[in-house]
Please model this.
Amino acid sequence: MTDLRQERGKTIAQIGGVRRIDSERYEVKSQSGNGRYNVHLTESGWTCTCPDHFYRNVKCKHLFAIEWSRKLREKVRENIVIQPVEINVCIFCQSSSLKKFGIRHNKDADIQRFLCADCGRTFSVNIGFEKMKHNPHAITTAMQLYFSGESLRNSARSLRLLGVQVTHQTVYNWIQKYVGLMDKYLSQIKPQVSDTWRADEMFLKIKGNPKYLYALLDDETRFWIAKEVAGDKMSREAPEYASNLFRQGKEATGKKPLTLITDGLHAYELAYRREFYAHQKPVTKHVEHVTWRGEKGNEKMESFNGNTVRSREKTMRSLKREDTPILTGMQIFHNYVRPHMALDCKTPAELAGIKIKGENKWLTLIQNASQRRERRHNE
Model:
């Protein structure tokens, strides 16, 4: 009997009978076509509202359908792997016959030199950090310190323990330069996010003035999809800000969600109708004022606001301008660099099919971004 339920569950998943609401809730179509059953995750495991599971307490075909649906989602997801950049050919003759040839010692940096066995010339390459006074390790360490929660001044003080003498302004200049470079590179890569997105806004100050940060988050991978800095969330311009947020989300992912979860802010409903609503299928469902097991339904978004944005803003006391590179840097750090305990110590990017290789992910991203920029310039 169990094998029969498994086969029926597989059939339901394959014909698209499973609708994912979020990572803990699904709707599964009845095989008779008379309606849908709600499947959700509890502390004791997955439960279904169908009579077979509710009254007989057996693992029904709808629970098997959820298992098959989740497996199918994993098979569809293909990983994009971003590798550390390695020097493989001579910059003069393009020969691959290279060997390491000592270290070039600068005032504040050590750079690997190479010898070409074919043309006999030596050279050094410092991809992404050309003409920089300090070495890549110092620069990426400063970025890691800052986006992990340290202030600019504390980051500079920590670098002095490594023998790197810099000011807090220098650390900010590094952030401004390399965040912009990485952002242009990563905007060309589309994350494979789920069909359920969450949106919320939080109060912050920019140069002492009250503002709101609108953020769009994927429910399954916790990938920070898009952001928008706005004025008063109750103003006439609020729907436009929310529309910009949703439009950025579509551009960043190349898709629309099947479910959008927000609080009751009216601007979200207007923006949803502008950007996501359509008369033809699939139709995006907008879920407002969600309550789930007696709790607020947008708690993932609230946790994101508090742990990712609010904690960083407290250290800074306030942002200095709306187009600050700090917010974009926080987005890159959240998505690609920092492992999350709630994601089994993986980054949101890993779950979204983008894997950054190397011990120093900042270095890998900067080198690849710089190399891509150079190729486009040469074209």
The first strand starts at residue 18 and ends at 22. Residues 2-76 form one domain.
